[in-house]
Predict the 3D structure of the following.
Amino acid sequence: MELKVSTRSHAGHALVVIAGEIDLYTAPHLQSEFTRLLQEGPGRVVIDMSAVDFCDSTGMNVLLSALKRMKERGGTLEVAAPRPAVQKILQVTGLDSVFTVHDEVPQEFLSAEKS
């Protein structure tokens, strides 16, 4: 399955919208997107996972790596709107206590898209 990643930046924040499956085959694409994004230096990154059907351990490692790099810069990386299957992976692995997880994309990111 194909992985689609799009990023919108606004006022030092970035919203990363991911659609598809994050696995051994698609994780390198996501990793390269995070590498590119982090070079821009946003202070806050929110990952919209509402269209992610599946995420394996490789995908979780990409997210953890991005989180670590954001924290090293004094920034934050948050997960928003994970589907039940992804939410379960976060809970089973304990990563729901590592990431800030939102039930939906924070309102300030939605209103930034409209302005």
About this structure: Strands lie at 3-10, 13-22, 44-55, 76-80, 100-102. The radius of gyration is 13 Å. Residues 3-110 form a domain with the Transcription Regulator spoIIAA fold (CATH 3.30.750.24).
